[in-house]
Amino acid sequence: MMKNLLLTFLLFSIIACSSLKTTQKLLAVGNFDQSINTALGYLQKNRYGKKAPQYHQLLHEAYTKAVDQ
Known about the structure:
Elements: H1 2-29, H2 32-45, H3 52-68
């Protein structure tokens, strides 16, 4: 029982971190539209989540870079 709980927690933590890192990588590569869509998808689900300020900042950066391009 404890192993299943630990495995589930580990899986959720990996999934939660991967979305933010993926958005940052997309922004660094120059794929602004996909990074905007990823950030918006997170913010629509978790508007007041723990990582919402980070996604908001990424969204703002991606938008300004997309407009400049």
